[in-house]
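Field guide to reading this record: the first block holds the primary sequence, the second block holds the structure written as discrete tokens, and the final block holds curator observations. Each block starts with its own label. This record concerns CHM4C protein, catalogued under organism Podargus strigoides.

BLOCK 1 — SEQUENCE
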Amino acid sequence: MSKISRFFKGGGSAASKGRGGPSPQEALARLRETEEMLSKKQEYLETRIERELAAARQHGTKGRRAALQALKRKKRYEKQLSQIDGTLSTIEFQREALENSHTNTEVLKNMGYAAQAMKKVHENMDLNKIDDLMQDITEQQDVAQEISDAISNRAALGDEFDE
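BLOCK 2 — STRUCTURE
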């Protein structure tokens, strides 16, 4: 494969080639690296803006042309800083969406495991056997209630006689 076709097809890492894309952990790591790099660039631009502002003040009215040039550079740096802010917001949104997707995937996977476990537990249970068992329990509870009623009614022996 030529270098040009490899470039257009995408290099990718060896770990992600076999699976058709990077894992969520790889993507999150790269997004965090990009956020870090942009944050450093943000700090650099902020210091440059401060320097240009200080240079403009230093030149003041004496070096009007130099002061204007410093203000123009400051404005350019502020524009770059604004673009980086927007890019950082987009990356943060994408990172959070990826984290949520990964969490949802894990939850779904665990729910699947739970469903399999419930199937395994229920495979030895037969609905007809359960119905029969519940009827037996109900009948035995009725018998116990009748016995209890009979015992409690017999406590008043002298009150009622069956002729």
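BLOCK 3 — OBSERVATIONS
The first helix runs from residue 3 to 9.
The radius of gyration is 39 Å.
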